[in-house]
Amino acid sequence: MNYPTWLLDIYGGGTIIALVAVAHVYISHLAVGGGLFLVLTEMKGLRQGSREILSYVKVHSKFFLLLTMVFGGMSGVGIWFTIALIHPTATSSLIHIFVFGWAAEWVFFFCEILSLFLYYYTFDRLDSGKHLTLGWIYFGCAWMSLFLINGIIDFMLTPGAWLENRNFWSGFFNPTFWPALFFRTFFALMIAGLFGFITSANIKNKALREEMVRYCALWLLPALLLLVASGFWYKVALPPPQAEMIFATSPEMARYVRGFIIISPLLFAGGLLIAMARPSFLIRPLAWLLVILGFGYMGCFEMIREGGRRPFIIHDYMYSNGILKEELGEFREEGVLEKARWVTDEERAAKSPEVAGRKLSTLLCLPCHSQGGFLNDIKPLVQSFTREGMASYLAGLGRVNSYMPPFPGTPQERDLLSGYLTTVLTQSRESQPQISPEELAIPRFAPEDKYLLVAASDRGAILTSEPQLSGLDFSFAPPRIKAQLIQRAESPTVTSDRVEISYRVIGKPEGEGGRLKAAAGYFQAELADLTPAAKPFRPYRLINLEAKVAGKLVAKTKVRVGLSNGFACRNCHGGPWRSEGSGLSRQTAENILTAHDKRSHTKLAREHEQGKIVVCSSCHSDSSRGAKGDASLLTLSGAVHGFHGAILGTGDENNCHLCHPVGSDSQSQSFDGLHGTTIGLNCSDCHGGLASHGAAILKAESSPGAKPLLAKLAGRTALPVEEIRSRRPWEMEPDCLSCHPGFAPPEKFSGFNQWTNGKQGLFGQRMGEGAVLLCLSCHGSPHGLYPARSPHSREVGVIQPLQYQQKPYPMGADKGCAVCHTKAMADELHHPGMLQEFRNRL
Question: Above 60 in pLDDT, residue 713?
Answer without folding.
Answer: yes
